[in-house]
Amino acid sequence: MGSNSFGEIFKITTWGESHGKALGVVIDGCPAGLLIDEEEINQDLSKRRPSQSKFVTGRNEPDKAEILSGVFEGKTTGAPICIIIYNQDQDSSSYEPIKHLLRPGHANFTYLEKYGTFDYRGGGRASARETVCRVAAASIAKKILKNYGIEVVAYIKKIGEVEAKISFATPQELRKKTLQSAIFCPDEKGQNKMIKILEDIIEEGDSIGAVVECQIFSVPTGLGDPVYQKLEAKLANGILSIPGTKGFEIGEGFSSAMMKGSEYDDLFILNDQNKVVTKTNHAGGTLGGISTGMPIIFNTAFKPASSIKKTLETLSIDHKKQRLELPKNSRHDPCIAIRGVSVVEAMAVLVLADAILLQKAIKHF
Amino acid sequence: MGSNSFGEIFKITTWGESHGKALGVVIDGCPAGLLIDEEEINQDLSKRRPSQSKFVTGRNEPDKAEILSGVFEGKTTGAPICIIIYNQDQDSSSYEPIKHLLRPGHANFTYLEKYGTFDYRGGGRASARETVCRVAAASIAKKILKNYGIEVVAYIKKIGEVEAKISFATPQELRKKTLQSAIFCPDEKGQNKMIKILEDIIEEGDSIGAVVECQIFSVPTGLGDPVYQKLEAKLANGILSIPGTKGFEIGEGFSSAMMKGSEYDDLFILNDQNKVVTKTNHAGGTLGGISTGMPIIFNTAFKPASSIKKTLETLSIDHKKQRLELPKNSRHDPCIAIRGVSVVEAMAVLVLADAILLQKAIKHF
Amino acid sequence: MGSNSFGEIFKITTWGESHGKALGVVIDGCPAGLLIDEEEINQDLSKRRPSQSKFVTGRNEPDKAEILSGVFEGKTTGAPICIIIYNQDQDSSSYEPIKHLLRPGHANFTYLEKYGTFDYRGGGRASARETVCRVAAASIAKKILKNYGIEVVAYIKKIGEVEAKISFATPQELRKKTLQSAIFCPDEKGQNKMIKILEDIIEEGDSIGAVVECQIFSVPTGLGDPVYQKLEAKLANGILSIPGTKGFEIGEGFSSAMMKGSEYDDLFILNDQNKVVTKTNHAGGTLGGISTGMPIIFNTAFKPASSIKKTLETLSIDHKKQRLELPKNSRHDPCIAIRGVSVVEAMAVLVLADAILLQKAIKHF
Amino acid sequence: MGSNSFGEIFKITTWGESHGKALGVVIDGCPAGLLIDEEEINQDLSKRRPSQSKFVTGRNEPDKAEILSGVFEGKTTGAPICIIIYNQDQDSSSYEPIKHLLRPGHANFTYLEKYGTFDYRGGGRASARETVCRVAAASIAKKILKNYGIEVVAYIKKIGEVEAKISFATPQELRKKTLQSAIFCPDEKGQNKMIKILEDIIEEGDSIGAVVECQIFSVPTGLGDPVYQKLEAKLANGILSIPGTKGFEIGEGFSSAMMKGSEYDDLFILNDQNKVVTKTNHAGGTLGGISTGMPIIFNTAFKPASSIKKTLETLSIDHKKQRLELPKNSRHDPCIAIRGVSVVEAMAVLVLADAILLQKAIKHF
Fold this sequence. Notes:
Four copies of one chain form a homotetramer.
Chain A lengths: L4 E2 L4 E5 L6 E7 L9 H9 L18 E3 L3 E2 L2 E2 L4 E6 L21 H8 L15 H16 L4 E9 L2 E2 L7 H10 L7 H17 L5 E8 L13 H10 L4 E6 L10 H4 L3 E3 L5 E3 L7 E2 L2 E2 L4 E7 L9 E4 L5 E4 L11 H27 L3
Antiparallel strand pairs in A: 1-2, 2-3, 3-7, 4-7, 5-6, 8-9, 8-10, 10-16, 11-16, 12-13, 14-15, 17-18
């Protein structure tokens, strides 16, 4: 259906390169009547970077999203919504010296193999810059989730060997704590240890991987579609489409391998409101790919950033041995997962919005 | 595009319930001229169960796939291929006593919430029985991979705390060792320890989770499509659509969280045949979602089977507390991942076949 | 999305060849809870042929549809519905003598060019036999339309120069008159003249084309999706996918070319129930591709059947001049449009059902 | 797949309203390596209007397309191509006086019914203005056709009762004659009569319908996909998605209804180059939905423009009787089909480009 599109009914198509004129997203299938404020989208975009954080490099000027279509008098009209973000800072001259080199951990080799061309300016479509479009689209999709009271919160769970301890009174509290952290980690103790690691990483000119956890609260039962569009299958598709991700797990995930059925099975009980819930939530919020009504919990593994301040052995495109040194002014993220937090959240929002519309289509006959 | 379909060009649509009359798959978009032998498909189906293994329960009669269309005089014609597998053993009377109970770890609660109906006979579409159709379809798709010399091999990597050590001379050797094992584990020592665990699990009437690893060899460069159809994103979608799966990781996967960029980056070098390869393969065979030509390596986490020989507290559909005891003659798999091995393999084959056709469509202009 | 599939949410995939073992259809995306009776489907299938009509040849035994999945205890479950129709009469030996000949007006030449193979038994996937699956699927889809009171009626409008005059009190009356006719033409006078033409055609061993008109009554406003899935665009797609069709027009259609805006424009007025309607219906029930609430009226042009009882000059597949004479026992339809009536109706039903579900998905936000 | 998208592999998604900030198209699935010149696209856009023609109204400033992504150093890169066309002339104040009126023949009533909103500025997404995006996209798609030597030429065939006589030595000659005509009609005599009709229509402040014919030359055999994506079915879908179209016919089309099989069947013969062709081409270039290699010929019926300089009775959105008089400065096309010529051509190009890529995907196994 086009490899730059995602979703069945609420469907996004993104375009634009990291060092081209602009990037953008077209949202098709968005219901009419949703209240949209351009300013809100821009606030969501700025949230991709924790405020005053030295752990996330940024372009000098903030991104500015502009809605070009699909919204009239502050409301969606049902027409496709195009949001454009012009690249303020598209100077790619610093890439000139390395334009003929295969970059370890980057996609320029594979794009060359696939397309026979080689866009040496930044990462092209493989760049994490593309994800700004997902966050903008999710800013619209969130309006659908809001109708159902659904809350999506992602945060840093693990960096190196340090794992955050997550405790919170309400989803709102969890989000607040997350946004207060310079590295989007809601656990203050854990965060401090992680920051220590990151400071070392920055000093070394190196990078490090991380795990981002995402929780979705107040999910209605019945979302997700068997067999190939199970909710977790769509989430996994969306998550693994984020640059730098290497793994997805839901509920107990890879720990399930070491568990017995007798400890794993989530028993059905009635809660205080006489609603069917499960006593535990090892499954992570779905059964048979359909939401149980329990919180959906999933983890995303991010690799360490490929761009580091070290000289690397590599090859040129004509297969000569070369040494790769990145331009002095290159941006380096010590931990791309921090910026990834809002993208994980965005993909979860997009999957949920689509699942809601799909469910509306077939319900109540 | 229909939640029972998978793939863009080489596209499968499966149908049928675990206790209905039959199951089947329609393959659309299969190139003409592939040599097909019904017997070969049936051999692939029988491989879902290790020979003489007590660790996998099975229906009494073997599955018998019949090609109803799309093949003429032993060759595919380009028309849709329908393969049907009649259920030999569709007696669901033993489910009668538990027909009104929510089954922990099963999908009958969520199907009820989604569809307002409750098919109490086995797992319906949520049953692992559906995967027989994927294996049948992959048996056709393999013919496309064969043209490129691609080999896909999956096996048990981990059960409980025991992790197999994988060493092999050739992909063929790896497959041979895997098929010789009663639990599809190619490492004899590891396998023996795992068997010990499984024997205890059977005695306890319990079940256990596992990790299945899959390797894809001789992959051409350039397969996979940016941005939302990255090869790993499609694999993750396919894998998480398998009943009982809880996680997917490629290359270093979740271990990436603890790695530094300087140790993670795979450096480009020339191999003996003057071909560009990477010195290491932490990425697991893709960069930017496109194949590098290195082996693709991914892991799948399987949860422990939900059906165990223990009495469980649960609710009835009218919200009364009940005790659930499975029928005496119910089938119990101590470790569903063993049967999952061939399904993981099948999904990888289907993803690769589709990626090959998509790449053919746009190449060489 | 697979060239053997049709529809976005209510989606059918058909398979099977005219002289293969069986044909079938998989319906994905059908809402749960619809009451289904296998017998009703078979009645719809038998309606493809007017009763006791000499103007439509038929297989000796009636088609017998069997539901293999997706229906439990008389209701749809939300799972994919597979309906199979076994070919009773798959003897293709009579095609042996002409197996090496290109058949004028048939698709064996183009299938050979496309796929490199040549299924000489009947028309394979190009055969009108495939349409039995569409009628079976529409038999299910009709249940969705019924919820909205929508009625679809198709009939023969024109054969040769004779055009039927259509007058009717109610849609039900129109359908009744149509079903009473030996050629599905509700205008008795016109029908008699057409029958005279057909009798001559049969005597000559020739065939003739026709126009089928279809009306859809009680259509809710708001169905159809701009821009590329306008209701008429989807109808046109569906109609032109029926074997033997050569044209589609909605409302005034090709007559529009000779009309002025001042006579064409349909003025908005209030009807007796204070509902907005249009005074005339030149547009044929849609504006901007979305239903107005007025009846949808469209025409389908059918070509004369290619198979006639005359010897034709042709080529063999190795490019030698040959004479083609059809087997003595070949079936000949003097006018394929008669059998096409129920297929046109089926495609209209399928398009409407899908449009209803798509509209449900985005409505009321 | 999103109602603002068209195509399976070469896939366009358009966005933007007639009186919004901008319109645009995203092309996904375009092969890499095609030579692209922004200037060429702008030339194609300007061709939508015959030069110095009084029969087509136009915006004051010409459209200016800008490529925002997907092209690097003059070549397509395989990344999605976004082309934007800013609306120079988006003043919609003249629509203020009629903003509360249902406009006969327009889509504002149906959009209101579907979406609950009412964009009173011009036609929104229903406006023919959207088609500028199709022409821009086709300008890229033509590069694919060029590789195969395929030529697509559309022209005015009929206005009122006047039908053009089409004779030409080569496709290039036909195109040249068409572009020389003030109304895109390659037959000088016919054109003169049509111009007389149009001059009367303009004087009356009325509008008139027309038929546009399109021929596609040098089509390879084997394009188009059975069953639901027959070449003519995709063309019909594409054509009926153009605003103002009411009918599509291929080959003999609706005339087939009056023909006998013995006169209709196209006999296979060898041509001078020993290639299989058909003696006649009543079918219009396809059999079974797949191209025969003969020219594809199809007609499109356009209705008369709805906007005329006459006062019309109508209703307001609150159901009061009103009189509708269009703003003095409204644009009036006496015959929208003239502008439709290049859009018909564009849709044919898009369908062919997609069919070529689909065929590449499955060929030669």
